[in-house]
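Below is a complete specimen:
___
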Amino acid sequence: MDSSLIKGSPIKGIIFFSIPLFLGNIFQQIYTMSDTLIVGRAVGVNALAAVGATGRLSFLIIGFAQGMTTGLSIITAQHFGNGNLKGVKASFANSIWICAGMSLILTVLSVSLARPLLQVMKTPQVLLNGAETFISILFAGVTVTMFFNLFSNMLRALGNSRTPLVFLIIAAVLNVVLDIVLIIGLHMGIAGAGIATVVAQLVSCIMCIWYIERHIPELNVTKADMKIDYKLVREELRIGLPMGFQASIIAIGSIILQVSLNELGPQSIAAYTAAGKVDQLATQPMASLGITMATFTAQNFGAKKYDRILVGIRQCLTVTIGYSIIVAAVIILNSHTLVNLFIGNSEPHVTQLAQMYFWVVSTGYFLLSILFVVRYALQGLGQSFAPTMAGVAELISRIFIGAVMVPMFGFVSACFANPLAWLASNAVLVVSFFRTIRNLRGANGLK
């Protein structure tokens, strides 16, 4: 497998590793973006709002799956960094057992609680049935989501960020085709959007299994390999569960914010949804560089290249902060055009609200760029407490905005939720980061 993250120029290795990851994240966004765009244009604003009303609830469960599998892959990356291929295989085998058990739990809980949670979130009655239909289909496919993320993260842990990209491209194209066939051709509406997403991801999961069996001997496990190592399971859960809970903690804050948005009505929900899709797309390069830092620090920590870790973090921060400033300017200058990609020109009030979102949120992108690099660097070093506490800080911030500010000042307050959450999270992370760097330098005689 590829060992470029522990050799050569740190920033060059980080950028080249993150490019396929970035493209993969873009195509993963196409999953939801194509649903949103086609539903909004073909079915209407209420259908768009129904899909949008499920976003935070979806992230509560699916975000947990993504976060946990990323955490599981960190142990694998550390073994790969120090050349322990037996440890790589053992880590992967035990991760399969962990994901199987967690998938069962998440599927049962999420499907059975989908409607009650939407009601607790005060989803408008006119949107409730459509939102329940869409989210229930996604939750029924949680196992597919869990294992696709596990396989993709394990490949990346071994330095292969290109293959998951190829499978995501195929799945994203299939998702768009299925959206058109099911939503427009067969008139299945919101249900068609959900089915298209799950089927497309199932295809990508099957392709990952096929590729690993034929090309990645380090991850080929036999019946004997599948024996559970409880000590290793505890170690993987020590990192994986906090990373999963961190995503869920952030999602809970977003759900509270969604409740406040729901009370503002379908137009506010549609505006926040449309602008949020563009926001997610714009921040993907920062997210990709951040995720790369988890693998970079894990591999180099395993290889005991501590000075390389420090150089890589510094260089990555410089690149990602520079990008955040540039993309914020582009979005602000083109906000009207970006919003109308989703809703056309027929909803001027929705367009105005979405533009307000862009003006507020994009100016805080530099905070998000710092958050991604620092958080994932700490997680790659095996630390879980500070990132989890940073998630709690985000939760408190979003609760304050959603429960106090939005009822008082309306939609504009909701726009400040993300920047303030990023600021609160950084306040926790940066303190732990500097302490960790100081300890790393002192313990290894670095300047």
